[in-house]
Amino acid sequence: MTVDTPRATVDWEGCLKRLTEGARALRVRTSPAARETLIDYLKQLESWNRTYNLTAVRKPADMVVRHLLDSLAAAPYIAGDSVADIGSGAGLPGIPLALALPRKSFTLVESNGKKAAFLRHVVRTLALDNVDVVQRRSEDYRPARGFDTVVCRAFAAADEAVRLAGHLCAPDGRFVLMKGRDPAAELAALPAGFRVLESAAVTVPGLDAERHIVVLGPGLL
User: Fold this and answer.
1) How many other C-beta atoms can be found within 10 angstroms of the C-beta atom of residue 219?
2) 79-115: pLDDT as tens digits
3) Residue 109, Cβ density class (10 Å: 0-12 exposed, 13-18 middle, ≥19 buried)
4) β pairing state of 169-179 and 212-218
């Protein structure tokens, strides 16, 4: 007879404490209600992940660092009122940023059916009024107006990201790339029409890995 191994109890209070301290270290202002909702989001992600394999990160405590805080590190680089998260996956960085920046509207663009279904579930369950989900490939998505900020995390190399989603950026908008190692070599291959406005190394509390954020702007030098 097969005996099921009981699942370990998750220390959600510890996760909330880690999130609170990490957001403070990042100097990203988040309300207590937003932080509680971020933990509720992790609960949904942890539950769905057991069946749908949405992320390789399994432990909620690690998700706080590798998903929530890593996403929130991009908050200072988000400008304007409308934001598109390209290749949103399980909602990263879009959902954490939408909770940290509730006055901005976010569109999560994701082509994978099971991931888009999860995103719609999260938006509905957590009543995220400033978040929409678009189940389309970024290169096929043609909204009536460009976004003030287009952001992508672990989506593609810089030149490919611009090729696939550059058209989503408003003429006076910005394209924010969240990268691991120094992306200098990638930036040398940028296609015409985008220029580097800023490139910075960022430190994510609790994460022993390199992180860089690059801000691109449309238009020639």
Assistant:
1) 10
2) 999 999 999 999 999 999 999 999 999 999 999 999 9
3) buried
4) antiparallel
pTM of the model: 0.93
Q: Which amino acid is at 58?
A: R
Q: Who contacts 193 (Cβ-Cβ below 8 Å, separation ≥6)? A: 162, 166, 218, 219, 220
Asked whether 207 and 174 are in contact (CB, 8 A), the reply is no
207, 65 Cβ separation under 8 angstroms: yes
Element (H, E) at 60: helix 60-63
pLDDT of residue 197: 95
Residue in this structure with the two tokens 């937003």, named with its chain if needed: 34
Using CA of residue 76, residue 80, residue 82, residue 83, what is the dihedral sign? Answer: negative
What CATH topology corresponds to 12-218?
Rossmann fold (3.40.50)
pLDDT of residue 14: 97
CA of 27: how far to CAs of 20, 74, 142, 169, 204, in Å? 11, 11, 35, 27, 11
**What percent of the chain clears pLDDT 70, i.e. is strictly above it?**
95
Task: State the Cα–Cα distance between residues 104 and 93, nearest whole angstrom.
Answer: 14
